[in-house]
Write a structure and sequence with these properties.
Strand order of the largest sheet: 4-3-2-1-5
Number of helices: 4
Strand content: 15-25%
Number of strands: 5
Order of helices and strands: EEEHHEHHE
Radius of gyration: 15 Å
Shape: globular
Amino acid sequence: MEMAFRKLPGNQHEILVRARKGPDVRLPAHPDGPSMPHDLVHAVVETALGIEDGFWGATARGATFQGFELVTPGRHRRSGVKVLRRGGDAVMAAELSVNWAYRVWRGLPTEGRGVGPAPLEAEALARTGPRLDAAAVRWAAVREGGELLWRWGSDH
């Protein structure tokens, strides 16, 4: 599967997802995070940790998430929901891991009120930090109207 993160004006991006099980999908204009798109963070962390059943793994298997549209309208929406129904717990577990890795990488609090137990060990965080650094540099280098291409399961 291939994801094209296109940088748009106004600190926004869109994503085109191709070569997955099921039809191509796109996420229309969406705000970037403080350093890069949240879904790019997912790609980086899920790849670094070998998470195959998280957000992008489910997408590769044909899941459809809120906000994503079919590039060519068709009848595949229901099958995407079935993928999520079968793997929803794993997607949520991946969300926690990705958010934690991002929190640590950004230097945000990891202790205190409202912060639960760490879902990742130091060894896992040691793998995610340098890859988030590299992805942030790559994203910052993309000019408005340009895109960062990411192949699912690799670091680029």
